[in-house]
Amino acid sequence: MSNPTVIPRPLECVFLDAGNTLLSPWPSFERRLVQVASEHGVSFEEAEVEAAIMAADREAVWPTDWTDPATQREFWFGFYISVLDRLGHSGDRQELAGALYETFTDPASYRLFEDSRPALEALAARGLKLGIISNFEPWLEDVLRLEGVRELFSVLAISGVLGVAKPQPAIFQTALDKAGVEPGAATSGASSPTTRTLFRRGSGSPSWHRSCCPGSARPTPSCATSSPTGSWPPGSSASSSRRSSSATSCGRCSTTSTSAWGSGTPTRCSCAPTPPWC
């Protein structure tokens, strides 16, 4: 079962994830992959693409160096080729993998969720500082600028810039230092339950917990719940980006998922696969 989120009082700062919390590829990762493949004369179905992505995710060894473009490029090329293999693609895999890499590293390929901007503006209107803590490449800031919300954030703690990634304590401490707040005055929401961070009042330091599947560093996606048009950008979670107002229950971990901004919980169960950014 998920641990309840403890909201600090008084609350001064809210840290959020980026991928699958505020934004994702548009119109979705699967659809965009299908579109790019179609432009290269290859036809895939969204359902088979999602299954191939999830299978590749289970076997992927995610890079630890977020600051080296060559390392990131090598990883994503290999990942896309793995997906194409699972889709039975017999054509030029290098060419198509290259096209996918160019698409999903283009900041213009990403959009905010419909409810992200109103929620951010509502939080800012209450006088709260806003920050992002995300395992993401440095160009995340470009996405925020293109979407017109960069000015809403006082703090950006991006792994590709800092060279440290969640769940390492350093990225959380850096965010707190930049915001100028104590752990007990901040809270954080993330798309991945394994790194969902709670800055508990009076804790003296950032702490994180696993919402479920505590024995696994990378929970399997066998019970992930999502809307029909899930989105999985490079590094995001394989089965849920679009969020609905309906509640669904996971048969494996009994987690109930509801609308992200209606309840503060993303539309995913606690066993959704761990993304390399969160």
Features:
278 residues; Rossmann fold; two-stranded antiparallel ribbon
Explained architecture:
The protein is of the alpha/beta class and 278 residues long. The chain has a single domain, classed as 3-Layer(aba) Sandwich (Rossmann fold), CATH 3.40.50. A 4-stranded parallel beta sheet has the order 5-4-1-6, with helices on both faces. Strands 2-3 form a two-stranded antiparallel sheet. Helix 3 packs across helix 4. It is elongated. The C terminus is likely disordered.
Would you summarize the structure shown here?
The chain has 278 residues and is α/β, with parallel strands linked by helices. It is built from nine helices and ten strands.
What structural class results from the helix and strand content?
A: alpha/beta
| Distance, first to last CA | 20 Å
- Please give the count of helices: 9
Flag low-confidence runs: 192-278
Helix content: 25-40%
What's the oligomerization state? Answer: single chain
Q: Which strands sit side by side, in order, in the main sheet?
A: 5-4-1-6
Mean pLDDT: 74
- Over all CA atoms, what is the radius of gyration? 18 Å
Can you identify the CATH class? Answer: Alpha Beta
Strand content: 5-15%
Q: What is the chain-wise order of helices and strands?
A: EEHHHHEHEHEHHEEEEEH
The assigned CATH architecture is 3-Layer(aba) Sandwich
What would the CATH topology be? Answer: Rossmann fold
**Extended strand count:** 10
Shape: elongated
The biggest beta sheet is recorded as: 4 strands, parallel
What's the domain count?
1
